[in-house]
Write a structure and sequence with these properties.
heterodimer; A: alpha/beta; Rossmann fold; 7-stranded mixed beta sheet; 5-stranded mixed beta sheet; about 20% strand; B: alpha/beta; thiamine pyrophosphate (chain A); magnesium ion binding (chain A); Transketolase_C (chain A)
Chain lengths: ~325, ~400
């Protein structure tokens, strides 16, 4: 059963199962992760098979979840904690930023923090307030943390394996609107390093860069553009921190135009960092300014308005047209 | 026997009925030695209390008189004169070290110092109650506990001098790095204790925090987690009456030890200036943890004799009378009185200790002055365990920038 088609959520589940099975120090912790299997069923069946001392239903206290995970890591465990929704991570933000991120440095490397923080993130599922946010920049800005986001089932599986094996804390953003998207997962072949970007589609006229839920949208945009005779390259970053600028640079040196797409607000978003660095690296290659498509500088809107707020096919294509017009 | 302080008056209100102890919900306690915890009992056997005293467990009065305590005497019953002298020595040397550090800050050798003056008994009593395999999670003021754990005092000074953010190996002495964000470490202690329980070990964990930290959500969450998972952790709260300028009245409407009851585990208040009582109560609490009875809250009622840190000016918010009143309850003085009255010491002991004390001061002084500034590239060291491309890139940029000066210097 090396290769199998499965949903992205199921791929994470299988990956957690494999980690729990192969390393007795791996723990899964979070609210409702036990009997219920998590509100998105990502941990479905794990408590039944590994017991409630390894798959732990926690009190409803996010700081407590991350803070005790830090203590467990100090004792030699490798906790994988679930924050139920993106908007609920902030009670834990203090522990993540002031403790988890800094422990290795301040102990001069004596203490490792192999903690994975799983966060279902992003919009597009018609949810209520605080259930659709994309806070990845708030974590990428913090030295000591690694921030990744898979876009498909195979990456979801393997990046979770690699995140758990990492001796650094990894914030693992799960594109919740893609949980049910199916893809081929080969459980015997590692697709590549955790922090390396991947060219999803080759093109010559412009590069679209995205990660997590926006990769699929960019592929759709490339399809649509192809019908108009435009050849777009799509790059799946996979990792927000560290970020594979070499791969972006290589692509932009070829296509000379770059559009970055993410759900998070454009202002101080990861696209801003990409634009600055690529401008510096590729100044003489660029035919157009780096353009960004993302959320607005406004609270995430009520569900009936989220399609206006989120980058959609037309907004991406509009940015592509603007970049090509230079 | 004691002089009341304004800060001490608040908890009295609701302490009256409980006499320094709250039981957990337990009728289900297992060990014989602690089955009585669920009931309330007089914390002191002495009738010398005045009505203005907060209720607390006390074995040595400020005058150095040993008072009986039916519940806790057993935990120090076998203590030898040598061990008592050891406690005295620990407190004297810790105070000497602390004074030296304060002086070093005044001389510009340290950027800051957080003095433990007045809290020696709470720290030495509790610290000496720990076993080698126990794990300690300190705040940033536990210099006495560090001493008990065998952490070289000069190691504590690096962060206050600004050469590192901790720097010692927490696993060498099972003494975690100092934590500056108030209360965060109580959750780490709880998680660590959950791990101890998973491992099937009989080690215990002790988390230090203060009266100010008791208001933090993390402390409440650590109480919840430790209770729910029955984690082998002791929460040792040094109520030193002041959180910088805010008295305990600004943190709580009930005596802090009573908070434990609402979480389902016992809390006890101990005279934090009585090293023997702190030793006994902490031993009891650690034993509960070891034997699977879960968390305990110990409130050590003490006083921060000095400023919050060397940057603080306590004359802006508290009067001398209060400090003087607590001076009469000095932890070192009271043990000395007891030792002398019991003929456990002679002049030679004190003279020898004085010499040892001065030698420690000198050693600390010299070590700090000799402490080199870290290498510039230390900025980029250990940010990640497995490396990070951006850190590598910025380190190279920094190196190139530094190297650009070499040419200039070479001309």
């Amino acid at each position: 059963m090396a290769a199998e088609k499965m949903a992205l959520a199921k791929a994470i589940n299988e990956s957690l199962r494999r980690a729990l099975d192969s390393d007795p120090k791996v723990l899964v912790m979070g609210e409702d992760v036990g009997k219920l299997g998590g509100v998105f069923r990502v941990t479905d069946g794990l408590q039944k098979d590994f017991g409630d001392s390894r798959v732990i239903d926690t009190p409803l206290a996010e700081s407590g979840i991350v803070g005790t995970a830090i203590g467990l890591a100090l004792r030699g465990y490798r906790p994988v904690v679930e924050i139920q929704f993106d908007g609920f991570v902030f009670p834990a933000y203090d522990q993540i930023v002031t403790q988890l991120a800094k422990m290795h440095a301040r102990s001069l490397g004596k203490v490792k923090m192999p903690v994975v923080v799983r966060i279902p993130y992003g919009g597009g599922i018609g949810a209520v307030e605080h259930h659709s946010e994309s806070p990845e920049s708030l974590f990428a800005h913090v030295a000591g943390l690694k921030v990744v986001s898979p876009s498909n089932a195979s990456d979801a599986y393997w990046m979770m394996q690699q995140a758990i094996q990492s001796d650094d804390p990894v914030i693992y953003f799960e594109p919740k609107r893609r949980y049910w998207d199916k893809g081929e997962v080969n459980t015997e072949a590692i697709p590549g390093p955790l922090h390396k970007a991947r060219v999803v589609r080759e093109g010559t006229d412009l590069t679209l860069v995205a990660y997590g839920p926006m990769v699929k949208l960019c592929q759709e945009a490339a399809d649509a553009a192809a019908e108009e005779g435009k050849s777009l390259e799509v790059l799946d970053l996979r990792s927000v921190s560290p970020m594979d600028f070499d791969s972006i640079q290589a692509s932009v040196e070829k296509t000379r135009r770059l559009v970055v797409v993410h759900e998070a607000p454009v202002f101080f978003g990861s696209g801003a960092e990409i634009a600055a660095r690529i401008t510096e690296r590729c100044f003489y290659h660029l035919e157009a300014p780096v353009l960004r498509v993302g959320g607005y500088h406004a609270p995430y809107p009520p569900a009936r308005l989220e399609d206006e707020y989120l980058p959609g096919l037309d907004r991406v294509l509009d940015a592509v047209d603007r970049a090509l017009a230079y | 026997m004691t002089v009341d302080s304004s800060a001490a008056s608040e908890p009295r209100r609701s302490a009256a009925g409980k006499a320094g102890t709250t039981g957990s919900k337990t009728g289900t306690k297992r060990t014989t030695r602690t089955t009585s915890r669920s009931t309330t009992r007089a914390a002191t056997g002495s009738g010398t209390r005045t009505s203005t005293d907060p209720e607390l467990v006390q074995l040595l009065t400020p005058e150095g008189k040993r008072v009986k305590n039916a519940e806790y005497d057993a935990y120090v019953a076998g203590i030898t004169p040598e061990e008592l002298r050891g406690l005295y020595r620990d407190m004297v040397l810790t105070r000497r070290f602390d004074a030296e550090a304060t002086a070093l800050q005044r001389q510009g050798e340290l950027g800051l110092w957080a003095s433990l003056l007045g809290q020696e008994a709470a720290q030495i009593g509790s610290g000496r109650a720990t076993r080698e395999d126990d794990y300690v999670f300190p705040t940033y003021r536990e210099h006495g506990v560090a001493w008990c754990r065998g952490v070289d005092p000069t190691n504590l000074l690096g962060m206050f001098r600004g050469v590192n953010h901790g720097g010692w190996d927490p696993n060498s002495n099972n003494f975690h790095l100092y934590t500056i964000v108030i209360g965060s470490q109580t959750l780490h202690a709880t998680g660590y204790a959950m791990g101890v329980a998973k491992d099937g070990a009989d080690s215990a964990v002790i988390a230090y925090f203060g009266d100010g930290a008791s208001s933090q959500g993390d402390v409440a969450e650590s109480f919840t987690f430790s209770a729910v998972y029955n984690a082998p952790v002791v929460f040792f709260c040094q109520n030193n009456q002041w959180a910088i300028s805010e008295p305990t009245e600004k943190q709580t409407r009930v005596p802090l030890y009573q908070r434990a009851q609402g979480f389902g585990f016992p809390g006890v208040r101990v005279d934090g200036n009585d090293v023997l009582a702190c030793l006994a109560v902490t031993r009891w609490a650690l034993e509960r943890a070891r034997s699977g009875e879960g968390p305990t809250l110990v409130e050590a009622f003490t006083y921060r004799m000095g400023a919050h840190t060397t940057s603080d000016d306590p004359t802006r918010y508290r009067g001398d009378e209060e400090r003087l009143a607590w001076e009469a309850k000095d932890p070192i003085l009271r043990l000395r009185r007891y030792l002398e009255a019991s003929n456990h010491t002679d002049d030679g002991f004190f003279a020898e200790l004085e010499a040892e004390s001065e030698a420690l001061g000198k050693r600390v002084r010299e070590a700090v002055r000799a402490m080199p500034d870290p290498d510039k590239f230390a900025i980029f060291e250990n940010v990640y365990a497995d490396g990070h491309a951006l850190v590598d890139e910025e380190r190279a940029q920094f190196a190139a920038y530094q190297a650009s000066f070499a040419d200039v210097e070479g001309v």
